Amino acid sequence: MKMIIKVILGVxxxxxxxxxxxxxxxxxxxxSGENMIINSINPAQLKDGVYRGNYNGGRWSNExxxxxxNKRIIQITIAKSVVFEKPEVSRELINKVIxxxxxxxxxxxxxxxxxxAYLKSIENALLK
Length: 128
Fold this sequence. Notes:
The protein contains 4 helices and 3 strands, in the order ααβββαα.
């Protein structure tokens, strides 16, 4: 009987650790992402070339490469994606940035933190 109680307590403790760790991991970076300000960029002021930028914010950490040609953004590639990537979100976001030539765009509905994280990487690359 004592052995069964020890096993139950051990399993319960392990489950609490796993659930607690998962909650911590899934919410780490939410505060900084919620209050993140994305600054406007102007690629016309930059030299042509490839610019690298990243954002470090828990599961939203990412890295992008931006190619400028003739003072315009012609390509944005994701070198390191967020943990739970939705390719359709990153594709739509990248298309909007290239079309507008700025990070001052509407955030993708349902992917606020992911959108902000990628936009911050783009900003970090071009405002270095």
